Amino acid sequence: MDKRKFLKIGSVAVGGTLAAPSLWLSSCNKKTTPAKVEEEVKKPLVTETLFTLPDLPYAFDALEPIIDKDTMQIHYSKHHQGYVNKLNKALSKLSIEKKPIEDLLAGENLPEAIQNNGGGHYNHTLFWESLSPEKKTPSKELVARIEKDLGAFEDFKKSMITQGLSVFGSGWVWLIQTEKGLQITTTENQDNPLMSVATQKGNPILGIDVWEHAYYLKYQNKRKEYLTNIMDIINWEVVEKRIA
Ligand code: MN3
């Protein structure tokens, strides 16, 4: 099949599937003129709202021995991909407009599917970028910044671990930036501090996944060991850049 023909068939197929809800609504509205219908068909396709799985910034085995290859592969290819797929499905179904993921999550009364899967997509994207195969040392400026708001750097790391341990069931532990400065907080499930449901709102600077799927293959029930070890592979350069 030649390329032009393929593209034509492809676009018709996509248009036929995804433009269907607006066409259906138009046909239900007796006041709709043919011109109006045509205008609606010309609207950008819902495909433009779709989110994609970002590239992992390192190989699946790059964080060994702290994060094993199997955990990384399943976590990224199955869990994160699953959130992206379900987010896209929910957006198409609910006809929600294209927005940056941060704006989408900051909205009031988020549909549950967007809260869970949009949160899952945002949180994991931030998580992958926050880890580094090469040992990174926090800059003097970052250490000073953390010391100013949260005390000694080693105490801050201990607090991240303690708060991560305090999450009952699945969730996340966060370093966030608020009007009062840097703070540590936690969220349940795939919620995050951008969401109106968060008890402590702020801009996420660092997020650590404490769902069992993040560590169970290697650490089983030893969440403390996982959290302690993961603090050694944080990409402090990326973390520092997130501070406004
Ligand atoms: Mn996870």
Q: How would you describe what is shown here?
A:
This protein has 244 residues and is mostly helical. Helices cover 52% and strands 9% of the residues. Strands 2-1-3 form a three-stranded antiparallel sheet. Strand 1 (171-178) and strand 2 form a beta hairpin. The termini are far apart. It binds manganese (III) ion. The site of manganese (III) ion has 7 residues, from helix 4.
Keywords:
single chain, 244 residues, mainly alpha, 3 strands, globular, binds manganese (III) ion
In short:
Helices cover 52% and strands 9% of the residues. The protein is mainly alpha-helical and 244 residues long.
Provide the structure class.
mainly alpha
**Which cofactors or ions or other ligands sit in this model?**
manganese (III) ion
The coarse silhouette is: globular
Mean residue pLDDT: 85
Number of extended strands: 3
Spatial strand sequence of the major β-sheet: 2-1-3
Number of helices: 11
**Main beta sheet:** 3 strands, antiparallel
Content of β-strand: 5-15%
Rg value? 22 Å
Low-confidence stretches: 1-45
Percent of residues in helical segments? 40-55%
Distance N to C terminus: 52 Å
SSE string, helix = H, strand = E? HHHHHHHHEEEHHH
